[in-house]
Specification:
By secondary structure, this protein is α+β, with helices and mostly antiparallel strands. The protein contains four helices and three strands; from the N terminus they run E-E-H-H-E-H-H. Strands 2-1-3 form a three-stranded antiparallel beta sheet, sandwiched between helices.
C-alpha cells in the first residue's frame, strides 16, 4: 500500500485551519495554492502549508487525519508550533 501524508493549511499565523490527507503532497498543496480545489480551502484562501507528516500507509494517514479532526484547535496549534513555531509556509521546502 502507498504512503500517505497528513497536512495542515492556513491563511495566516493563528488563522483558519484545515487538516487534509493525500498520497502525493507536493501536487496536492499546489492544487490548493492555485485554487483548483473547490470547497473550504478555496472559500477561505487557505494556501499556507504549515504542517505535514508522512505515514507508512494511506490507511494510517487517513486514521491520523480523522483523529486530528477530533482534536481541539489548541492541540492542533500546539502540534504546528512544535515543528513550525514561526508558521512558515513549508511549500517551497517540498521540492
Amino acid at each position: 500500500m502507498d504512503r500517505g501524508w497528513v497536512y495542515i493549511l492556513t491563511n495566516r499565523p493563528n488563522g483558519i485551519l484545515y487538516v487534509g490527507v493525500t498520497g502525493d503532497l507536493p501536487p496536492r498543496i499546489w492544487e490548493h495554492r492555485e485554487g483548483l480545489v473547490d470547497g473550504f480551502t478555496k472559500r477561505y484562501g487557505l494556501k499556507r502549508q504549515v504542517y505535514a507528516e508522512s505515514h507508512e500507509t494511506m490507511l494510517a494517514a487517513i486514521q491520523r487525519e480523522k483523529n486530528l479532526k477530533h482534536w481541539s484547535r489548541s492541540w492542533i496549534v500546539q502540534l504546528i508550533l512544535a515543528k513550525n513555531p514561526d508558521w512558515d509556509d513549508l511549500y517551497d521546502r517540498l521540492n
